[in-house]
Structures are given as structure tokens and as C-alpha cells.
Design brief:
Layout lengths: L1 H11 L8 E5 L4 H13 L5 E5 L4 H5 L5 H6 L2 E3 L5 E3 H11 L7 H4 L5 H13 L1 H4 L11
Parallel strand pairs: 1-2
Antiparallel strand pairs: 1-3, 3-4
Length: 141
């Protein structure tokens, strides 16, 4: 889809940041797009690149991942080409972005990943409803 590639480019394109870790997200989801736009603003060192899962380059970047897997979770592809998804990806992002450091101890507390993953899945399942906005902006999440 052309629109998602343009949106990804404006966030920080993997082609322009070859050393960056890649965040793969649902570019057709307004809620998801709003969250990665926030991450991009917080990434003042340009350590992240963003790619919509609908961008054809995803198959080049991550041939092992299926469309279904990508639709279920945000993925972070680190510098070593390891895949981290859902809450585990956010745990890593909480250590990468200084603005998220205050929540890093909570997200990274030993034994809590199953809880965070469950919480992430509850939000991910409802993401299209969370991304709905009213014309007057009154119901913006």
C-alpha cells in the first residue's frame, strides 16, 4: 500500500538508517501509527527506523515472519537481526529511549513478561477500535 510506505518514510526509513533497529507496525491502524509517531519523536538519536507491515520491504527484512504474526504484534528487529514482539519489544524500547526509562524497571521486573504480554494482546486485539477518531476530536484516545 503506497500510503503506508510514505508514512513509514516520514518516521525514519530503514533505507536511510541502515544501522537502526527496525520497528514493524500496522500502518493501516490509526492507533498504531499514533504510537509509532510518538516513538519517532522520542527517538532523538535516530536509533530506530519504522516500517509498516504492509510495506513490501518487510518480506526482504524479515522473510521468516508471516503476515498473521505481523498483524498480531508490533515487532522490533534489533541490530543482531533478532526479533522481539509485543510487550518484549516495548521492554527493549523502554531501555533504548531515555523518555521511557522511568517505566523500564516496571516493564523489566523479573517474571512480569507474561502479564505485560497479555496486556499488550488485549490492546492489540482492539487497536482498530482504539484508533477511531471523531470529526471534532472529542473521542481521541
Amino acid at each position: 500500500m503506497m500510503g503506508t510506505a510514505v508514512e513509514s518514510n516520514s518516521l525514519g526509513d530503514p533505507g536511510d538508517r541502515p544501522e537502526a533497529e527496525i520497528v514493524i507496525f500496522d500502518g493501516n491502524c490509526r492507533f498504531c501509527l499514533a504510537q509509532v509517531q510518538r516513538l519517532a519523536r522520542w527517538d532523538y538519536r535516530s536509533r530506530l527506523a519504522f516500517l509498516s507491515l504492509h510495506d513490501p520491504r518487510v518480506t526482504e527484512c524479515c522473510p521468516e515472519l508471516t503476515h498473521e504474526q505481523l498483524m498480531e504484534n508490533l515487532y522490533l528487529v534489533d541490530r543482531n537481526k533478532n526479533y522481539h514482539y509485543g510487550a518484549a519489544a516495548f521492554r527493549i524500547l523502554s531501555r533504548r529511549l531515555p523518555i521511557l526509562w522511568p517505566i523500564a524497571p516496571i516493564l523489566n521486573f523479573p517474571g512480569t513478561l507474561p502479564f505485560w504480554q497479555w496486556t499488550y494482546q488485549q490492546i492489540a486485539k482492539r487497536r482498530y477500535r482504539l484508533g477511531q477518531t471523531c470529526d471534532d476530536g472529542q473521542c481521541k484516545v
